Amino acid sequence: MKNCKSFYLWVEDRYGTKFFSRLLERIESKLEVTIPKRYPEGKFIKIKSARTVGNIETKIDKAVALAWKRYDCAIVVCDGDGKREERLKRLNKKVSEIKERPENKNKKVIIIVFKNAIESDWIEKGLDKKIDYRDKAELPDYANKLNLNLLKNDDNFKEFIYAVDP
What is the pTM of this model? Predict the structure, then answer.
């Protein structure tokens, strides 16, 4: 799955776009991972929000197909809300249906589903403390505060790094 020279990152909520944009900058500077140029300047990365949980599951096929028209990879990141395996299975099933089309055989998609939510799975782990995450608008600010070394052993974080490292 590695070698996403360009990617379309599709996240669950609207504050996730700024969070991931800032997180990618930090990953590049702190972990020395070379991230492709940001959209729109370099047109190598596009980060979009699905807005709600339902949109991820009902529109993943359209979002991935759209991503594959311009980008090397589609990366989907969403909360599992305690049902990670069920959600991952449903998302993979939808993607496998469009991957069966001949024009999509060699296309790449990476689906990252948190066990619960990004706040409890990455942010609390990266801050090494519990947080009150009822205000989603604060999500982007946490990207600048995370200790990325505390996340290095997290399976989802490793998969994310693996996906964005060209």
Answer: 0.89
